[in-house]
């Protein structure tokens, strides 16, 4: 459908639209118009991505100077889905184009996604490598400019990558025909044309209208420096599924060092020394050139580095740093290596301590200076200096030096930031361990540090998700001022999901994942009977989430020994998330095969004998785990989600404690408030995965007595919380089962009742709504009272009756006379 | 699904339901294959075995207490040799407890002989059932259409239909009663009775078509501790089969060592004591000290290292659906950040990982046995080489929101108006002319305005008088009170007479249903959900031609015309029962008006014709 929002023509690739999608698009447009930032929460499964893309693409295509869209998502499947949505949208736009010019404009629209070399490589040997780091290093060995020069001058002397070479033959900026490509399609294109998909995308990035990649490519300064530095200031940045964005920010600036890593770094230092000696004898001018460049400053030294050569950039991005000259004592290669050696030795000695140490970067630097005379300034240049050295020495197999790179990044970070970081040395893995296995955590406590450059650089940053309540938490944590901050309720003609809070088992013993009681046999059994009972009554798929891997693994064992899982086996197949990602993917795939709707049709049609598998399956997984991120359990794939316990983080963790303390001191966020917020957003994220569209339905079961408390529930997204009734907020298992059965009986009735006008709008409804808004705005101007509030909440439904209702407003209260009874 | 009735069925309805099906059964001319005096539930009686049914009748009671179909029989169990009394237990897939009979012949010899006869006849039946229920070990079940021939679906359509009808009647006692009253008494034909009840049959067919497959529990024989503290595990052929299937390594050990190295019983004895068995157990109990195992040279050779590393021992070469590919996300960017805290590190509890892996593998195996390999076209896989091209449309089913697409609404059902010309407005007016002219509209508006003028002020001054309100309330209260009192004082109707009334009512209702079914236009064809469900989908649709419908309507009208007489007879009989005849007449009032309406319409139609 086509419609206008404030004069902007929108093409929306569906015949109908949900009211919340319309409101979302209006607010998004306001954010873009104001060139400001926004926080928007829209119910899961109501087509957030398509609304977002539809509005922004319309915005781009309408404007004379299109702003580029940088769309960030969390996982590769989500990136792939977003690309596919974009592709569908552009196809629709092409089909709806009114003039040939419009058509050409739509057809020349470009959208690409970016992921790692590991996911995009076509080289027969390199792509077989298991680790992304190794793929990166081997790819670099085959494609860096020095090697290419040699190889081209003297074919056959050094191995080159054919796919990369073929790319050079093509006209730059026209490596792939215009259009929108999913990652799979780019791969297919690469295969057909014999070109490298990764570098096709990298080199096309300046020319695309939309780029879709993961958060890290923008937030992690090491990657952002390489990948995202060329985007202009007016680009629109969207963080979708951004409920975890603060964690990504923290992660991208935190580093762990272990003893094996330091050993490996020490070995690298030795190798570097040898290499320098070797170069000195064969090609001393190289080192002198480097020295001369470094006097000029790092920026000169690093200018014009092609993508192929870059391997790991500076973890911080202050421009002034890059312009400065590199300190004299590390300018010479052998001096720098000696400097690194001393630093690594220092870290090794620190690791020998057998008690926990927590210190600020300043105190660390002071101690470092006292012991080794290493100053702060050269330390800051460590990462850049190492990069320059590696390039000069033309090192291959960079992955072998990854530990040294980490140490260098660590050095740079620790010398750059005074506040918002903490160093924690933990000599033992657990409280009870006796063999030391020390880890030196350099942990970032302030999520705003990593995202600050993004907010500073780009004019419009939109943070959006299905579950980012409470909304004001994010501006507070990330230190920005949004122009629009909105959460949309879900309009429904029938309640398509049923949230239930189970606080106790049928035996009235309270259930809770509180640390003290979680392993109590009564609690374990009650949790188990929830699963058993639901496996009896729910068709197709059930997903269960646990607060942690540790708890899931112990409870699965306990359930097995108690015979509870035997009861579940009678009704459903069981799949469990494992530590290995690929193994879990296969389990997921099988899970979905069991629950696939087509399959049951086959069973019925063929009268197949062994059809106990038409029953569906149970997937056991972990909140914050691999499965909880980016995998949807809509329709048959998840008719019920059970959240066992409240997914609090492990409060004994020193890193978490330090972070909580920091949040309290710096931003006045209380520890308990943050913990509860974090647990509830995780829970909401888990259960929110069951819905896609309003004819889909699902049960959401929160099993823990602590969910009964109103202050906990208040932290759930509004659209979810509004459907938790008072009765459903404190149930025993048997009562919950009764309610669930009733719900399923009702929801299984014909869903084709008329939603139109209430939870589903046609073009007419939009126009009527816009007319009403205009009228309201005019009235606002006429009316001096100013108390008239535009109808905003609860997305009112306007039909003919409502116009009548508006005229009632004119009657004053005092004109009404009491009717005596 | 047929419901096996156990002798404990107390209420009288199920037994009646059974008796309705009994004549049908005998009419098929079935003879018992064998019979023997036996005791069931401590009652003496006789056990009959037919080719399709197992029946037990208590002595002196005509209705059988046990009457079950044998196509669900799953296993038979004998009591121990030499033990008295001689028992036989038959288990069913839908009733795992099954039925236990003791042979009551005075001589143990004779009882044993009788049991042997039963066992001999039952074994092939059970074997057949098993081969139908689960595919042969090792070979995945291919879902070829040819296999359908082996299922009971392909049997004679009518027989199939009868079985379905019978099981529907068994499941619905009320319906069975009605069936008995109307069909068996000959008032309605079988086909007429089922007409309009196809949905019951089709859901029954769907249920019957869904055969129960293998149980999906893990194979985990639990040792039982005997009286003397000795530990024993009971081995059945089924268990052996399951173990071989679940653990191919045990099957290998068996084939390599039995009977050369050891005999069968010592094989199992040693297996259950070996470390191999402990490894195969679906439990983490094996770490407990009482389960220390003896080293066993033969079995220890088959031991495999525990699969408890964080990545599985077996390298999974399979590539996965791109939208489920978790590894792609892990490799999407370099790992950053601090190590996860202790609770969030997967696989820390090493002892549990093998168990979790076994769950996944077991589920996958069951799935594959049931379905065979997934259709390759459905899997969005990224394969090397040219053969598998990626189809972008595959993603659309994951992203498209169906609600937002305007599926065109159905055309609706056309009204069949009695005097269509009376209501027809289309002929008098040109189709595109406006409904009213502008002047007409203006006049209407002004008249409406004048009518409603002053409406609001009138509403303001509305003041109902207090007296009137009170009087109204009083009137209502007294009416309710009177009704309540009248209701309470009524004497109860004698149960027998009440039953007669109910029968009359339900029969007349059924006639009405049939009548309207014949008179009204036929319903649209049912949604095609179950259309392909069974081979007999066409069998239950009794397509009636116009003439047949007329004949049926006439027949039903005839029945309905006699309803009045029946009601009158009941009213008369009421006096004899001590019930107020007016009450009975009032009770039948709504029914009579419905009948009158039907007859009136029928009369009109006849006149028209």
TrEMBL record, chain A:
Keywords annotated in UniProt: 4Fe-4S, ATP-binding, Coiled coil, DNA damage, DNA repair, DNA-binding, Helicase, Hydrolase, Iron, Iron-sulfur, Isomerase, Metal-binding, Nucleotide-binding, Nucleus
Family the UniProt entry places it in: Belongs to the helicase family. RAD3/XPD subfamily.
Sequence segments annotated as region (Disordered): 772-799
Cofactor: [4Fe-4S] cluster
The protein's name in its UniProt record: DNA 5'-3' helicase
GO CC terms: nucleotide-excision repair factor 3 complex
Skewed-composition ranges (Basic and acidic residues): 772-787
Alphabetical list of NCBIfam families matching this protein: rad3 (TIGR00604)
Source organism (scientific name): Calocera viscosa (strain TUFC12733)
Alphabetical list of CDD domains matching this protein: SF2_C_XPD
Helicase ATP-binding domain mapped to chain residues: 7-291
SMART domains: DEXDc2, HELICc2
Catalytic activity reported: ATP + H2O = ADP + phosphate + H(+)
Coiled coil: 262-304
Pfam families given in the database record: DEAD_2, HBB, Helicase_C_2
GO annotation, biological process: nucleotide-excision repair; positive regulation of mitotic recombination; transcription by RNA polymerase II
Principal location class: nucleus
EC number of this enzyme: 5.6.2.3
Automatic annotation (TrEMBL), chain B:
Keyword Repeat set for record: yes
Alphabetic keyword roster: Nucleus, Repeat, Transcription, Transcription regulation
GO cellular component, one term: transcription factor TFIIH core complex
Protein name as catalogued: BSD domain-containing protein
A GO BP annotation: DNA-templated transcription
Pfam families named in the record: BSD (PF03909), PH_TFIIH (PF08567)
Family: Belongs to the TFB1 family.
UniProt-listed InterPro entries: BSD_dom (IPR005607), BSD_dom_sf (IPR035925), PH-like_dom_sf (IPR011993), Tfb1/GTF2H1 (IPR027079), TFIIH_BTF_p62_N (IPR013876)
Organism: Calocera viscosa (strain TUFC12733)
Keyword Transcription: yes
Domain BSD: 161-194, 238-279
Coiled-coil segments on the chain, per record: none
Region (Disordered): 1-31, 130-149, 204-226
Composition skew (Polar residues), residue ranges: 18-29
Low complexity compositional bias, start-end: 1-17
Domain of life per record: Eukaryota
Subcellular localization: Nucleus
């Amino acid at each position: 459908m086509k419609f206008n929002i404030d004069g902007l023509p929108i093409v929306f690739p569906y015949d109908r639209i949900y009211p919340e999608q319309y409101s979302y698009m209006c607010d998004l447009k306001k954010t873009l118009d104001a060139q400001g930032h926004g926080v928007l929460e829209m119910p899961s499964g109501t087509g957030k991505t398509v609304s977002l893309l539809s509005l922004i693409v319309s915005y781009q295509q309408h404007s004379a100077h299109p702003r580029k869209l940088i769309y960030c998502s969390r996982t590769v499947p989500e990136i792939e889905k977003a690309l596919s949505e974009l592709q569908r949208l552009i196809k629709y736009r092409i089909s709806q184009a009114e003039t040939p010019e419009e058509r050409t404009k739509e057809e020349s629209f470009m959208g690409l996604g970016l992921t790692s070399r590991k996911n995009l490589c076509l080289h027969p040997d390199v792509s077989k490598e298991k680790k992304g780091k190794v793929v990166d290093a081997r790819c670099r060995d085959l494609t860096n400019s020095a090697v290419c020069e040699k190889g081209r001058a003297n074919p056959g002397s050094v191995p080159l990558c054919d796919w990369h070479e073929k790319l050079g033959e093509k006209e730059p900026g026209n490596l792939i025909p215009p259009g929108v490509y999913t990652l799979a399609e780019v791969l297919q294109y690469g295969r057909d044309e014999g070109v490298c998909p990764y570098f096709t995308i990298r080199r096309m990035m300046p020319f695309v209208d939309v780029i879709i990649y993961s958060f890290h490519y923008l937030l992690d300064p090491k990657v952002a420096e390489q990948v995202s530095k060329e985007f202009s200031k007016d680009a629109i940045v969207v963080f979708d599924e951004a409920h975890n964005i603060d964690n990504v920010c923290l992660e991208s600036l935190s580093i762990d060092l272990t003893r094996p890593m330091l050993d490996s770094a020490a070995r690298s230092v030795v190798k570097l020394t040898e290499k320098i000696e070797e170069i000195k004898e064969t090609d001393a001018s190289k080192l002198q050139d480097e020295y001369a460049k470094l006097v000029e400053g790092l920026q000169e030294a690093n200018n014009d580095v092609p993508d192929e050569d870059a391997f790991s950039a500076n973890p911080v991005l202050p421009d002034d740093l890059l312009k400065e000259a590199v300190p004299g004592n590390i300018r010479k290669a052998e001096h720098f290596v000696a400097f690194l050696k001393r630093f690594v030795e220092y870290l090794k000695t620190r690791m020998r301590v057998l008690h926990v140490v927590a210190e600020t970067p300043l105190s660390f630097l002071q101690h470092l200076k006292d012991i080794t005379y290493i100053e702060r300034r050269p330390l800051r240049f460590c990462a850049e200096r190492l990069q320059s050295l590696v390039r000069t020495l033309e090192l291959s197999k960079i992955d072998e030096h990854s530990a040294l790179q980490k140490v260098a990044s660590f050095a740079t970070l620790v010398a750059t930031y005074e506040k918002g970081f903490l160093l924690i040395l933990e000599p033992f893995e657990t409280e009870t361990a006796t063999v030391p296995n020390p880890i030196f955590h350099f942990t970032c406590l302030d999520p705003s540090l990593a995202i600050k450059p993004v907010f500073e650089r780009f004019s419009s940053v939109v943070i959006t998700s299905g579950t980012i309540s409470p909304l004001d938490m994010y501006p507070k944590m990330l230190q920005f001022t949004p122009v629009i901050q909105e959460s949309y309720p879900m309009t429904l003609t029938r309640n398509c999901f049923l949230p239930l809070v189970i606080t106790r088992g049928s035996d009235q013993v309270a259930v809770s994942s509180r640390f003290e009681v979680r392993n109590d046999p009564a609690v374990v059994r009650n949790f188990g009977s929830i699963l058993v009972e639901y496996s009896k009554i729910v068709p197709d798929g059930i997903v269960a989430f646990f607060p942690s891997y540790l708890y899931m693994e112990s409870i699965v064992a306990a359930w097995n020994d108690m015979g509870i899982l035997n009861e579940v086996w009678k009704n459903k197949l069981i799949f469990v998330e494992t530590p290995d990602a690929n193994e879990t993917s296969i389990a997921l795939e099988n899970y979905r095969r069991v629950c696939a709707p087509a399959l049951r049709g086959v069973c019925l049609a063929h009268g197949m004998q062994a059809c106990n598998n038409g029953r569906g399956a149970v997937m056991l997984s972990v909140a914050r785990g691999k499965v909880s991120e980016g995998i949807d359990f809509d329709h048959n794939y998840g008719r019920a989600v059970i959240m066992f316990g409240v997914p609090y983080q492990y409060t004994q963790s020193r890193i978490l404690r330090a972070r909580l303390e920091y949040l309290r001191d710096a931003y006045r966020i209380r520890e308990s408030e943050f913990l509860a917020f974090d647990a509830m957003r995780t829970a909401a994220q888990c259960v929110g995965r069951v819905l896609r569209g309003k004819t889909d339905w699902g049960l959401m079961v929160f099993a823990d007595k602590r969910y009964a408390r109103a202050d906990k529930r208040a932290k759930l997204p509004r659209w979810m919380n509004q459907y938790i009734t008072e009765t459903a907020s404190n149930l025993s298992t048997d009562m919950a089962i009764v309610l669930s059965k009733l719900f399923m009986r009702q929801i299984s009735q014909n869903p084709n009742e008329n939603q139109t006008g209430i939870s589903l709008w046609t073009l007419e409804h939009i126009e009527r709504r816009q007319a009403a808004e205009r009228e309201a705005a005019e009235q606002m101007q006429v009316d001096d009272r100013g108390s008239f509030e535009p109808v905003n909440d609860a997305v009112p439904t306007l039909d003919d009756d409502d116009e009548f209702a508006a005229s009632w407003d004119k009657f004053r209260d005092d004109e009404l006379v009491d009717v005596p009874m | 699904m047929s419901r096996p009735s156990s002798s404990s069925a107390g209420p009288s309805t199920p037994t009646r339901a059974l008796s309705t099906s009994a004549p049908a059964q005998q009419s098929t001319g079935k003879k018992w294959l064998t019979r023997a005096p036996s005791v069931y539930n401590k009652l003496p009686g006789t056990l009959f075995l037919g080719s399709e049914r197992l029946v037990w009748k208590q002595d002196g009671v005509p209705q059988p207490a046990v009457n079950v179909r044998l196509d669900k029989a799953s296993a038979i169990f004998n009591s121990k040799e030499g033990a008295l009394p001689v028992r036989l237990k038959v288990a069913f897939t839908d009733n795992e407890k099954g039925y236990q009979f003791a042979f009551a012949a005075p001589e143990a010899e004779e009882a044993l002989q009788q049991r042997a006869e039963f066992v001999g006849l039952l074994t092939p039946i059970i074997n057949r059932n098993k081969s139908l229920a689960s595919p042969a070990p090792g070979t995945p079940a291919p879902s070829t259409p040819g296999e359908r021939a082996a299922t009971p679906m392909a049997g004679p359509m009518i027989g199939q239909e009868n079985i379905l009808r019978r099981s529907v009647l068994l499941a619905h006692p009320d319906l069975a009663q009605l069936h008995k009253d109307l069909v068996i008494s000959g008032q309605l034909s079988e086909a007429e009775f089922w007409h309009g009840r196809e949905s019951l049959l089709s859901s029954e067919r769907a249920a019957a078509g869904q055969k129960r497959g293998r149980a999906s529990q893990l194979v985990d024989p639990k040792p039982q501790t005997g009286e003397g503290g000795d530990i024993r595990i009971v081995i059945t052929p089924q268990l052996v089969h399951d173990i071989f299937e679940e653990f191919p390594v045990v099957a290998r050990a068996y084939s390599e060592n039995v009977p050369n190295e050891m005999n069968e019983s010592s094989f199992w004895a040693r297996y259950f004591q070996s470390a191999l068995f402990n490894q195969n157990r679906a439990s983490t109990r094996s770490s407990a000290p009482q389960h220390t195992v003896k080293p066993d040279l033969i079995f220890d050779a088959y031991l495999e290292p525990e699969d408890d590393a964080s990545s599985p021992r077996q390298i999974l070469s399979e590539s996965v659906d791109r939208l489920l590919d978790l590894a792609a996300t892990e490799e999407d960017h370099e790992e950053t950040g601090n190590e996860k805290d202790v609770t969030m590190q997967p696989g820390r509890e090493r002892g549990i990982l093998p168990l979790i892996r076994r769950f996944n593998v077991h589920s996958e195996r069951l799935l594959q046995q049931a379905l065979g390999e997934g259709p390759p076209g459905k899997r969005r896989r990224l394969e090397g080489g040219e053969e598998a091209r990626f189809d972008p449309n595959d993603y659309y089913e994951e992203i498209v929101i169906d609600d937002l697409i305007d599926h065109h609404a159905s055309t609706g059902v056309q009204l069949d108006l009695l005097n269509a010309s009376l209501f027809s407005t289309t002929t008098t007016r040109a189709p595109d002319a406006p409904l009213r002219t502008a002047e007409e509209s203006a006049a209407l508006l002004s008249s409406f305005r004048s009518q409603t003028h002053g409406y609001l002020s009138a509403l303001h001054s509305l003041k109902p008088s207090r007296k009137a309100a009170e009087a109204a309330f009083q009137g209502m209260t007294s009416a309710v009170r009177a009704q309540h009192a009248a209701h309470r004082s009524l004497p109860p109707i004698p149960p027998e007479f009440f039953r007669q009334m109910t029968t009359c009512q339900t029969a007349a209702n059924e006639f009405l249903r049939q009548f309207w079914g014949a008179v009204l236009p036929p319903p649209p064809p049912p949604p095609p959900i179950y259309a392909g469900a069974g081979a007999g989908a066409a069998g239950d649709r009794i397509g009636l031609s116009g003439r047949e419908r007329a004949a049926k309507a006439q027949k039903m009208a005839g029945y309905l015309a006699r309803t009045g007489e029946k009601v009158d007879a009941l009213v008369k009989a009421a006096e004899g029962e001590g019930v107020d005849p007016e009450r009975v007449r009032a009770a039948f009032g709504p029914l009579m008006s419905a009948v009158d309406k039907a007859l009136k319409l029928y009369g009109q139609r006849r006149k028209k014709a």
